[in-house]
Design brief:
about 200 residues, mainly alpha, AhpD-like, about 60% helix
Length: about 200
């Protein structure tokens, strides 16, 4: 149950344009945005960061891989809210649901390429506390990605570091879509809604 009030649509109407890119990617306005909106400057700053990190350029890694990286980082951090979101986001980006479900065993699953394994391995190491990313991890990334893409990978991990901390601390209530996705595809691998149950903020 969310620990602060989630602002309703009419309360965030002034920020509709700001939230539209995220809504288009996910199919709904995430509750994390509804809590951030209590501090509009934060919501605007996060919106710009999200746009810079997730928007695609000619040199970008795929959006589906960005969400898989976010998923691996969130697995490392233990944020069930972000695990559900990134799993669903990766599927919306074109990743087969079976592959999303298998991300928990990406090292051994035939569904993943060596390039994907390198990125996901790096994401888990970089998201760990304390940080476990090494020079060897970067050397491995360079077998598959250029400098631009490596910066993009680190940016995705860093953005989800903020989101993991935010949503796990706030106990942000999960929306219907990611709950349904996670229960279908991730629950067998240890995912649980936990504290991210729906409902109003605690009084």
């Amino acid at each position: 149950m969310s620990r602060v009030k989630l602002l309703a649509d009419e309360e965030i109407a002034d920020y509709k344009e700001l939230m539209e890119p995220i809504k288009q990617r996910l199919g709904f306005v995430p509750n994390s945005q509804r809590s951030m909106a209590h501090k509009p400057e934060l919501l605007k700053a996060y919106g710009e960061l999200s746009k810079a990190v997730m928007n695609q350029t000619d040199g970008s890694i795929s959006r589906a891989l960005k969400y898989m990286i976010g998923n691996a980082a969130s697995l490392s951090a233990g944020c069930m809210y972000c695990i559900a979101h990134t799993g669903g986001g990766s599927a919306r980006g074109g990743t087969e649901e079976a592959k999303v479900a298998a991300i928990w065993e990406f090292e051994t699953s035939d569904l993943f390429t060596e390039a994907e394994r390198s990125a996901l391995r790096f994401a888990q190491a970089a998201a760990a506390v304390p940080n476990m990313a090494t020079d060897e991890d970067f050397a491995d990334l360079r077998k598959h990605y250029d400098e631009y893409q490596i910066v993009e990978i680190v940016a995705v991990i860093s953005m989800f570091g903020f989101l993991n901390r935010w949503n796990d601390t706030m106990a942000t209530a999960l929306e219907e879509e990611p709950i349904a996705f996670a229960e279908k595809n991730l629950a067998g691998n240890g995912w649980t809604v936990g504290k991210h149950v729906t409902g109003e903020a605690a009084e």
